Batch of 2 targets.
Target 1
Amino acid sequence: MLNRFVIPVLIVVVMSLGFYAFPARAADPPRNYVALTLDDGPDENAGRVMNILRNNNARGVFFVIGANVTARPGQVRRMRDEGHVIGNHTYDHVDLTTLGAPEIGEQFALTNAALARLNVVPDLFRPPFNRANESVWDAGWDQGMAMVRADCDPADWSYTSARPIRQNVQNCDLQNGSIIQLHSWNAATSQALPGMIRDIRARGFCLGIVKPSTVWNPLHAGWIEVAPSPETDGC
Ligand SMILES: [Zn+2]
């Protein structure tokens, strides 16, 4: 009989003690995250990109081409082992909107099979040239992958020097959840990266990763979110 009263009272007392002993840290401002995405690898330059990300304690999201995965499995293992996110960017880098549903499915499936041999199971994809229609969306969804767009596109692929790439990212109207689209094969992109990461952090953003989400994301019109990475970036 006594326990029916004593135990609830004890719980309330202990919880109150906890409240006073560990007050919420009201001083911490909410953190804003943006993600760096790197398309078209694995490639000759991706190792340099990974060195820079490692030196800056940041993770990237690599959208890889299946044919390149088959050619450079060692780099995919490194992406995997260093905590980067690996997404599907089709097998042959084709414009998926020119294909029928079975061919779209095959482009995703061949890439996922190449990745599965390296114990990587992607849950994200990005269509080449950012060109997609409902069949593309459905085919990705059928294979357990959410589509990822970008709201900051510095057109890094079109430059052979770092300065304009870094400047274009500076000119992006970054917000919490922004996704920056880069290409791992471009030497100028890797040269721009250290300064770009400094700029992004100086603007008050942390570097995060992209994940599927059960909440609709209006910024990207998709079921994705930008979230902290497990070992987030010193933020
Ligand atoms: Zn691409």
Target 2
Amino acid sequence: MSWTCYSCGTKNPGSADQCTNCGGTTAAPRSFYLHWVFGGALFFLITYAIGSIVGATLLEFAAAPEESAVIAEAKVILAAKNIPFENLSTIKPDELAASKAAAIAKNKAKIPAVIRGMLLWILPALLFVLCGAVVGFISDGKTIIEAGLGSILGQVGGFFALKIGLGHDIGWLVLGAGLAIGFALAVVGSILGEKIQEMKERAV
Ligand SMILES: [Zn+2]
């Protein structure tokens, strides 16, 4: 890879330790850092996957059903099979799981959409700002757009990992809306990271 001299602007081959024109050894900051798009994408992929899984778990917790609700669902499921209901310990594991899932689904539907969305996405959102800040802070040059592009790649990768790899129930709309929001969060995070980096450099 070639580098541009910071002092005189001469383009030098990657093999040259010194500028072929002035002997300078400092490279000018590049305008675009492709490796930070991919490096960032990896950060964002991991946080997207972890954040969404934790969010889904939080929602399950919030929607944890009363035993009476599980029993009510179990009665419905068994009645459909013409089996009399005794108690929860006598039904088959898959019937118990189905009863619990049905009770949780009803509770989830009762939680207002705004709260549901917050439980699901507050952690991924915070992590995206943090990731953007990390990319902005540890990269040498300005990597704001790079962080944003990385967030898009990372989200697409994380989305398919969750949907196809882990079989998560996650809609295309989530990806569509998330790409724009995720890009914005990553950019905000990266700007913060650059500001912190500047402050640190000034303090030195
Ligand atoms: Zn030079």
